[in-house]
Amino acid sequence: MDYISTRGAAPTLDFEGATLAGLAQDGGLYLPAHWPQFSKDEIAAMAGLPYAKLAARIMQPFVGDSLTGEELGALCDQAYGRFSHAAVTPLTQFDEQQFLLELFHGPTLAFKDVALQLLGLLFEKFLTRSHDHLTIVGATSGDTGSAAIDAVAGRERIDIFMLHPKGRVSDVQRRQMTTVRAPNVHNIAIEGSFDDAQAMVKRVFRDPAMNSRLHIGAVNSINWARLMAQVVYYFAAALQLGAPRRKIAFSVPTGNFGDVFAGYVAAKMGLPIERLIVATNINDILHRALSQGDYSAGTVTATAAPSMDIQVSSNFERLLFDCGGRDGAAMAAQMGTFEADKAMRLTNAQREGAAGLFTSARADANDMARAMRWASEACGEIIDPHTAIGLHAARDSGLSADIPVVTLATAHPAKFPDAVERATGQRPHLPARVGDLFAREEAYTELPGDYDAVTAFIAERATPGS
């Protein structure tokens, strides 16, 4: 499998190269040169497979010659052996139509673990082969940071520098990052928003001074391998609900568009998805883009769903590229306009290409709270604010009653206890497996939202690549 950049001017890479590169040299994002496809019979034959075996089956076409089937299978067994539920991503039923896909049974209680536990192992495998050292520079709006740090802490060939917006993540999210005491882990709290942090990370990948000395890698969803791993749980859920004989819809709370783009990939591979519902909070750039063609960044507003407090959705570029005819030069020009003006219009081809599968919905604080109360009072389920936004959109989708709607539960409710308690009157508790999180000492560095200050900090502490 070859990987190409959405902006058309970066070298074509294999899976190993794309995984270690993260962002493409031209500022674009890597995508497979073509979408592998499964027939209905092949999908039906996957029913009943344990999660790790299903993961290896789904991902093998993307991996190509970079890993043997045995190597990929062993990595999947190792990655998903750390989850607290044997099903890895179990499905819960709310009512006759509504279902919940629980993606929070990994070590840091968020859906990011499903991909990052595997990505950490892929990094280690590839770096050991090449005797190289990787400097991961990432930005987090809450859950990516803790999941990435857990996945790579203590690995000798990796340094990780994780930026989070100071004061804009929950206490649990922050502590899951800052209480990990490993010599290769560096937490940085910057002044500003997640969008500011993400812009710095992208700039690092294009900085000749940084790249001449360090091998820079990505754990954010700009890294294709992360999205690849997330495709699997769409298949897992759909198979349990009758696929490929039956169509399934998914409602996905999203900010950076990575999780829902994985659903788009699953559909491209042949999974019968009736609808992908993009659920946003009041930071609704994706809702405006999909419903009106208006991709214009506004001011980020802090909410009780901080992982969605984003106005620049990196992975949306992948969808626009694929729906717009895979024209790298045109995509580069379009994104150049957005980066200069923070605004652009989707083309007719892009809107038409997305319209067949995607719809979108926007939820405010009241919508979110009502969904949490409904889940608690009517179904006996406690859900977190992000999941509640997805559930609000799912229940308001207008889909035919014979189409099951699966809401992706992206985080354990105990990561956001204050918001949950305000809405439901119940305060969720952290699972015992998290341990004494609030008794551990924190360690992080506060820096201004200044690129030079951040890169100086990284350059002083990172190990050069080979």
Automatic annotation (TrEMBL):
Gene Ontology biological process terms, A to Z: threonine biosynthetic process
Record keywords, A-Z: Amino-acid biosynthesis, Lyase, Pyridoxal phosphate, Threonine biosynthesis
Domain spans labelled Threonine synthase N-terminal? 3-80
* N6-(pyridoxal phosphate)lysine modified-residue sites: 112
Q: What is its EC number?
A: 4.2.3.1
Which Pfam families does the UniProt record give? Answer: PALP, THR4_C, Thr_synth_N
**PROSITE patterns per UniProt:** DEHYDRATASE_SER_THR
What is the required cofactor set for this protein? pyridoxal 5'-phosphate
- Keyword Lyase listed: yes
Give the InterPro entries listed for this entry.
Ser/Thr_deHydtase_PyrdxlP-BS, Thr_synth_N, Thr_synth_N_sf, Thr_synthase-like, Threonine_Synthase, TrpB-like_PALP, TrpB-like_PALP_sf
Domain spans labelled Tryptophan synthase beta chain-like PALP: 101-346
Task: Give the metabolic or biological pathway.
Answer: Amino-acid biosynthesis; L-threonine biosynthesis; L-threonine from L-aspartate: step 5/5
Reaction catalysed by this enzyme: O-phospho-L-homoserine + H2O = L-threonine + phosphate
Record SUPFAM superfamilies:
Tryptophan synthase beta subunit-like PLP-dependent enzymes
Q: Which GO terms fall under molecular function for this chain's record?
A: pyridoxal phosphate binding; threonine synthase activity
What protein family does this chain belong to? Answer: Belongs to the threonine synthase family.
Q: NCBIfam families from the xrefs?
A: thrC (TIGR00260)
Q: What is this protein called?
A: Threonine synthase
High-level lineage: Bacteria, Pseudomonadati, Pseudomonadota, Alphaproteobacteria, Sphingomonadales
